[in-house]
From TrEMBL:
Domain spans labelled Quercetin 2,3-dioxygenase C-terminal cupin: 20-100
Annotated InterPro entries: Quercetinase_C (IPR041602), RmlC-like_jellyroll (IPR014710), RmlC_Cupin_sf (IPR011051)
Organism: Pseudomonas frederiksbergensis
Record-given protein name: Quercetin 2,3-dioxygenase C-terminal cupin domain-containing protein
Pfam families named among the record's database cross-references: Pirin_C_2
Domain of life: Bacteria
Amino acid sequence: MIDSGCDRAGQWAVLASGMPGDERALPIRADARVLGATLKAGQSLSTVCAMARHAYLVPTLGAVRVNGERVDAGSGVAMTDEALLVVEAIDDTEVVMVEVF
């Protein structure tokens, strides 16, 4: 689920976007979207990446597993042509993801 509002608890929220339909987000001049989510330890969040060509995800707090790979706070993971993205919180965490179309 992607939410254009401010609530990031357990779901993606669009923070900034240059994509149609994301009018509630901070506008940017790029074919891209910046998303944020907060997860409690043990929670997971998934999204289908059908439109995005590239994505970059960074946990700002705690550690997560992204498609099974551990990513610690401040580290990032770049993805290209992934069909499905699964983020599993190891610790309470906040993640930021940039999708490029």
